[in-house]
Specification:
177 residues; alpha/beta; 7-stranded mixed beta sheet; 5 helices; globular
């Protein structure tokens, strides 16, 4: 990584209807990262996102939550990268991951989208897969529940109790970069 600013984008869906749903764990982790470094989100009209600027060990970090729906968030990620002049190699996208156990977090660079429409749209908008993905495991849906329905359901009470720890773990991975 260079001294170029780091862009961290939490994926989710805007509005109170989607707060505390599994699909919005990217927003939750982004909020934890910003809060833990004294950052406050404000509307950034040119990029259609809420943005907090923080500093981690002397490096400028732009933390963002697009105001678009998850499946079309790539345009906002691209607008943020262009506005702040950040290359894909210095972008981290935080997202929910069905194929990981609830509570597991993993940071990797590049790779496929694993059927995640937010990642697919981001890859298309950036024109490359070479950005970081911070996956936050939400587990598989129970029984025969459709994955699309599962990701939009609120967390269970026990999961909500663990959510701050998971978001702190995600923030820790970014801080270690």
């Amino acid at each position: 990584m260079s001294s170029e600013a780091l862009l961290v984008v939490g994926l989710g869906n805007p509005g109170p209807k989607y707060e505390r749903t599994r699909h919005n764990i990217g927003f939750d982790a982004a909020e934890e990262l910003a809060k833990s470094h004294g950052g406050n989100f404000s509307a950034h009209k040119r990029t259609n996102a809420d943005v907090a600027e923080i500093n981690i060990r002397g490096r400028k970090v732009i933390v963002a939550k697009p105001r678009t729906f998850m499946n079309v968030s790539g345009g906002a990620v691209k607008a943020l990268a262009n506005y702040f002049k950040i290359s894909p190699a210095n972008i981290v996208v935080i997202h929910d991951e069905l194929d990981m156990d609830f509570g597991e977090v993993r940071l990797r660079r590049g790779g496929g989208d694993h059927g995640h429409n937010g990642l697919r749209d981001t890859t298309k908008a950036l024109g490359t897969k070479e950005y970081y993905r911070l996956s936050c495991g939400i587990g598989r849906p129970p029984g025969r529940m459709a994955p699309a329905a599962f990701v939009l359901k609120p967390f269970a009470r026990k999961e909500l109790e663990e959510l701050p720890i998971i978001c702190a773990d995600a923030a820790d991975l970014i801080e270690q970069m």
